[in-house]
Design a protein that fits this description.
With 409 residues, this protein is mostly beta strands. 4% of the residues lie in helices and 54% in strands. It has one helix spanning 7-22; strands at residues 31-44, 59-73, 78-89, 97-108, 112-119, 152-161, 164-172, 191-192, 198-199, 208-218, 221-231, 236-242, 245-252, 254-266, 269-279, 285-299, 304-315, 329-338, 346-354, 360-370, 374-384, 400-408. The radius of gyration is 22 Å and the shape is globular.
Length: 409
């Protein structure tokens, strides 16, 4: 069901394979590494759905598989990585999906490296929202927190100099965002028809995007400056009528986004800042996240660490001309607890409160290893006091708890 790669993306992948075949390989034999996980997951929805057309399911199980196959040779200067992912969901056909998270060739030179194929890139420093992390599309059917990403076809060249690392990206082939199946939990009252998706670019999802980034560490400062030109990873949902039914159609604009991320370390405190300015979706608008994480070491019997997180989120976009956001004037606060035990037990509790209307989104995450091959995770997402004017109101009854048991190999 996921719209996998167009012709341009396939061509770049085959270019990687061809390039690999002609690179001289040293006499040293290559090394293989294989790892992965199988996870059983159950989501529990404690409340009845808000909309009559939604399924009244309270328990939704699924199974996921992810593997990573790595081959290295040429004194570890060359590496092929293949990372497939798949999920089978009992209730939601759209959440039953597969993806190639990575299928790339990496070559390390002296002070430079080149990646060709399908890969993932992460930019940013803040906890509550990742404004600058724009290369990969959200895997929105996995979770609502924006942490899961789809693989992106790319050519990425990085050059390391004394004044910083310079990176350029050529991104052929656009990955559309998928949405949960209509009538399922977390889907809202209206159907989103991805078959009718439109693009501002004449080439549609064949458009080639470009990005560049400079990052550098100066003393206790980590600085990143980036620019992206191409198809927005966020879709505007345009309301229309189809067969006497109100539906929404995704539309992807062409944008230019310039972004800055900074992290300053002083003692046990990390000061964090991300900001971006974007054109192409109405008037140029800006957004930023600013805050800190302070760690208290050796507490609870002298073994655990507690991190205190506070961030402010601002976004001045026009919600009629740009994709909707729920974090335009919000405060995030959270606590991270690392027990530092042999089971790697950890907890994260946090919440975002809208300064304008008091709407709140709370999250709880906990994980613990069981032996050397198993891990159990607990996640909770809770919508509290959601104002009827808030875009998150469609999820007001969709609190859910996820329990996940994973076997690693």
């Amino acid at each position: 069901m996921i719209r996998i790669y167009n012709l341009t993306a396939l061509l770049i992948y085959f270019l990687a394979v061809i390039t690999i075949s002609v690179v001289p390989i040293s006499s040293q034999a290559g090394e293989w590494d294989f790892s992965g996980s199988i996870s059983g997951e159950t989501r529990l929805f404690p409340y009845s759905p808000a909309f009559a057309e939604q399924d009244k399911m309270t328990i939704s199980p699924s199974v996921a598989f992810e593997a990573e196959i790595v081959y290295e040779w040429n004194d570890y200067s060359d590496r092929i990585t293949f990372t497939p992912f798949a999920r089978l969901d009992v209730h939601d056909d759209n959440r039953t999906h597969y993806d190639i998270r990575e299928a790339s060739w990496l070559h390390l030179g002296e002070g430079w490296d080149l990646t060709v194929g399908i890969s993932k890139v992460y930019w940013g420093v803040t906890e509550s929202r990742h404004l600058v992390n724009i290369i990969n599309q959200d895997d929105a059917v996995e979770d609502i927190d924006g942490e899961d990403k789809l693989g992106q076809p790319m050519v990425n060249f990085n050059l390391e100099k004394e004044i910083g690392t310079f990176s350029v990206f050529v991104l052929p082939g656009f990955r559309e965002r998928e949405f949960l199946e209509h009538n399922k939990r977390l889907s809202g009252p209206f159907r989103i028809d991805t078959d009718l998706t439109t693009f501002e670019a004449d080439s549609g999802n064949h458009n080639v995007d470009f990005a560049a980034r400079w990052q550098h560490m100066i003393g206790d400062w980590e600085i990143g400056l980036s620019h992206f030109h191409g198809t927005s990873r966020e879709a505007r949902l345009l309301q229309t009528m189809s067969n006497n039914e109100t539906i929404f159609v995704p539309h992807y604009d062409q944008i230019d986004q310039t972004a800055l991320d900074i992290q300053y370390t002083t003692g046990a405190t990390l000061w964090k800042f991300e900001a971006m300015s974007r054109s192409g979706q109405g008037d140029r608008f800006a957004a930023f996240v600013a805050g800190f994480e302070h760690t208290l070491y050796a507490v609870i019997g002298g073994r655990a660490d507690i991190g205190i997180l506070v961030e402010y989120l601002y976004d001045d976009r026009d919600s009629l001309l740009a994709p909707i956001t729920t974090t335009d004037n919000d405060i995030f606060a959270g606590v991270r607890l690392a027990m530092n035990d042999t089971q790697d037990t950890s907890f994260l509790i946090g919440g975002i409160v809208d300064h304008n209307n008091g709407s709140s989104f709370l999250t709880i995450e906990a994980e613990r290893r069981i032996g050397s091959d198993w891990k159990i995770e607990l996640e909770g997402r809770f919508f509290e006091n959601i104002d009827q004017t808030d875009p998150a109101f469609i999820f007001a009854q969709d609190d859910f708890i996820t329990v996940r048991l994973s076997r690693y190999f």
